């Protein structure tokens, strides 16, 4: 079983071992858990305290002996909701800190597939119509599963997309929705990158290995590129 998602919740390897052992074995003493996991008994008590605090395990006392057991796996969802609530409570404070010395132009670099997904999720979060220059099917090749979710989110949020692509790709672009309008230009208008303009941001997707995205946040730059895009849009077919 893949236990990596448990690690992403902040559980350390020893804590995951203990939790999984209790799921399999049921009520167990610290000594038994030590045997199941090959972890030092003194180390186990610290980890048990952490799991108890997170609500992922509980205990009962029989004949003055403490027995531990794993909570129902659904409890993990409660733990996630608690974390989410706690984070939501401090988001306003974090934004206030962020905005104290907010520069006019912000340039960020995101690497790999997860970085690309982060930027595409930001497009949805922005919730505004966006323009794409130079899409040739790279999104489908690089993010074959997530890109379908992205397009569903675009449609669900009633966001409109304008897409400029090479003439040779006419009729070959698979990933389009009813709220996507596609036009084409001769190949010499394009470079090896894909640019997405949304709100006051420009995302430049660079497909050569290692893949990464340059995200520029600047209202003036975004407006200038939108003006350039509009000129090309008028001459495209």
Characterization of this structure:
By secondary structure, this protein is of the alpha+beta class. It folds into 2 domains: 4-75, Arc Repressor Mutant, subunit A (Orthogonal Bundle); 103-235, Endonuclease Chain A (Endonuclease, Chain A), CATH 3.30.870.10. Helices cover 48% and strands 22% of the residues. The protein has helices at residues 4-8, 13-25, 30-37, 41-53, 75-100, 112-126, 138-142, 146-156, 219-235, and strands at residues 57-62, 65-70, 106-111, 130-133, 161-166, 180-185, 193-198, 201-206, 212-217. The longest helix is centred in the middle third of the chain and has 26 residues, at 75-100.
User: What is the CATH topology descriptor of the largest domain?
Assistant: Endonuclease, Chain A
Architecture of the largest domain, according to CATH?
A: 2-Layer Sandwich
Give the domain tally.
Answer: 2
Tell me the radius of gyration: 25 Å
Strand content: 15-25%
Q: Determine the fraction of residues in helical runs and give it as a percent range.
A: 40-55%
Oligomer category: single chain
> What is the mean pLDDT?
87
Q: Which shape, going by the Cα principal axes?
A: elongated
Strand numbers in spatial order across the main sheet: 3-9-8-7-4-5-6
Put simply, the count of helices is 9
Sequence stretches where pLDDT stays below 50 over 5 or more residues? none
Q: Order of helices and strands, N to C?
A: HHHHEEHEHEHHEEEEEH
What structural class should be given to the helix and strand makeup?
alpha+beta
In the CATH hierarchy, what is the class of the largest domain? Alpha Beta
How far apart lie the N and C ends? 52 Å
Summarize the biggest pleated sheet.
Answer: 7 strands, mixed
CATH superfamily placement of the largest domain: Endonuclease Chain A
Number of strands: 9
